Write the C-alpha cells for this entry.
Amino acid sequence: MKNSQLYKGSLNTIIMRLLEEKGRMYGYEITQKVKEITQGELNITEGALYPALHKLEAEGLLDVEVEKVDNRMRKYYKLTEKGTTETVNRLAELEEFIKNMQNIVNPKLSY
Amino acid sequence: MKNSQLYKGSLNTIIMRLLEEKGRMYGYEITQKVKEITQGELNITEGALYPALHKLEAEGLLDVEVEKVDNRMRKYYKLTEKGTTETVNRLAELEEFIKNMQNIVNPKLSY
DNA sequence: AAATATACATAAGTTTCTTATACATAACAA
DNA sequence: TTGTTATGTATAAGAAACTTATGTATATTT
C-alpha cells in the first residue's frame, strides 16, 4: 500500500466503503479513486488489491460482473446483501478505531 | 491486539506516543494504559508487545532500564533522542492517516 | 489452596501486505 | 515505428506484524 504501516488492515474496509458509496467499481478504478481521495498518499498495489477482492468475494461479501469495455476486461464488484450488512459493522469499527487513536494522540483530561 | 484488523500496524506508534507523554513506562503498564484509554477495546497482547519493544530498542529508538519493584522485575522504556525525533514523524503520519480514512468514510463534496 | 494479577519472554503459525513477474490492449511520445 | 505510459487483471515468493500458546516467576486476593 504505502510505506506507512498504519494502513495495514484497513484495505477491506476501504474497498467496502467505496462500494457502498459508488454501487459498483472495478479494481483499477478503486486504486485510482483512493489515490485521488488521499491526494496520492495511498497507492494500493495490485498485489494487495486483487487477492483482497477475491477473498471478499469468496466470503460472500462481494458479487462480481465481468464486462468488456474498449476491448479490455473489467471485473465490476458490488456488495452482496451480506456485504452491505457487514460494511455497517466495519464502518462502526473504523469510527471506534479512529476515536481511540485520537484519544491516544490527544489524550482526554480524564486520563 | 484485537479482533478488528484496523489496529495492525499502529502498535509502534502507540508505544512511542505513550512514552513521549509519560517519559518512561514498562511493558505491562503500557498494556493497562491502552486498555484504559480505549475503555477495554484494545488489548495489546504480550506476544505483540514485547517483540515490538525489543525491536524498537534494537533500532535505537528506545532505551531500557531494569528495576526491581516489589521483588518483581520491571523494564522501563524511554525514547532516545533519535526516538523522540522519529515520534514526531510517526505522529504526523498518524494524523495524515486518520484524515485520509475520514475522507474515505465521509467524502468531501469535491470528490 | 487455588485463582487472579503482575511482569517478562519466545516460538509456531496466520494474515496482510510488498515486490516481482506475467499477460494483454490502448494511447501517446520520440 | 517503436518504445513508454496508461489501463486492466492475476499470482507467487517473501517480509512484517500480528495471534495463540506456552513458559517462568512473584504477589495478592478468594
About this structure: The interface with chain B takes residues 4-10, 12-14, 17-18, 21, 34, 36-38, 41-42, 91, 93-98, 100-105, 107, 111 of chain A (CB under 8 Å). The longest strand of chain A covers residues 62-69. The CA atoms of residues 1 and 47 of chain A lie 9 Å apart.
